[in-house]
Amino acid sequence: MTLSNRNSVDVIIPARGSTPWLELSLTSIALQSFQASDIILIDDGLPHVNSIKELGQKLFGHRFRLLKNEGQGISAALNTGIRQSGAHWIARMDADDIAHPNRFKMQLDFLSHQSLVVIGCGTQVRFINTKGMVLGHSHLPTAWSQIRERITERTCFVHSSLLMKREDLLATPYRPSMDGAEDVDLILRLAERGKITNLDTRLLDYRLHPTQESFRARARHTAVQELAFRLALTRRRTNSDPLERTPGLDSEYIRSRTFLTALRYAKIYLGGLDLSGFGQTALVGLKSLPTSWSSLCIAWLIFRKAGAALLQQSTPFTELNIR
Q1: Which of 25, 81, 170, 253 could be a cystine partner for 40, CB 3.0 to 4.6 Å?
Q2: Residue 66's beta-bridge partner residues?
């Protein structure tokens, strides 16, 4: 780890399980017009470490670093990489994404002309499937005024397209209790420290596939995302974070909301005659069955509305009620 300069970039990639697109992802980094200082891959449960290490050293030589996660889960993995980095900027990538050749250069050029209050930027992306076919494109807001207005109600960034200041990530680390919406929670807290924007150029291919963690645990992730929005709105109102005042609040809230959100998704799957999806989400719901009667009483709302639409709805957790 070396002393950072304002143009230094380290790429951080958390990885676990099988990584069929990792070589494509790493190759796209090797082909960047602006070369990163270090490429840091965090082992969060990789079965073939030696072959991955050989691939990384072949592409990057001594700049490739394979580190073991110091904790458990994606937040701990990302925090591990950030702590071990020595660069001024952190570029996020996932093990199945593809960076376009000018991604880092265009982001750095943009940020170098911004004031110090701009602490990061993302990009537009192309959505691709497992075969690399383009499925669509993002239309994310680019102006900070638009982002600030929408950020507590909807996702305004593709997390793996972001380039962020390391010092701000050290001051505002990922929270393991928010795994599943750790990106949303992080951005909401970073946006309270400075401005984050998006370029209007597509500079990343973001791969969608049914083995993604977000597909397997969508009900819980929706619940965690709603919690992140509620926490941000509460901080705006009270200037303090409920999780710091009430330890354990996050796990209680997520369990309650996961049950209700799972019911909502189960209804969608059943309506589409997807019995496999119905069974999986119903099982998630049963495993997360809350003991609070007041939580059960608002289940019918979850059937009809998404998490962000429920932010004004009271919950059994008074610390998180917006009104």
Answers
A1: 81
A2: 41
pTM assigned to the model: 0.78
Each residue's pLDDT tens digit, 96-116: 999 999 999 999 999 999 988
Let me know: does 248 contact 227? Beta carbons within 8 Å. no
DSSP per-residue string spanning 58-118: HHHGGGEEEEE-SSSSHHHHHHHHHHH---SEEEE--TT-EE-TTHHHHHHHHHHTS-TTE
Task: Say if residues 51 and 26 touch (Cβ distance below 8 Å).
Answer: no
Q: pLDDT tens across 184-230, in order?
A: 999 999 999 999 999 999 999 998 765 545 444 665 677 777 778 88
Q: Which of 291, 282, 250, 280 is nearest to 264 (CA)?
A: 282
143 DSSP assignment: S
20 touches 26 (CB < 8 A):
no
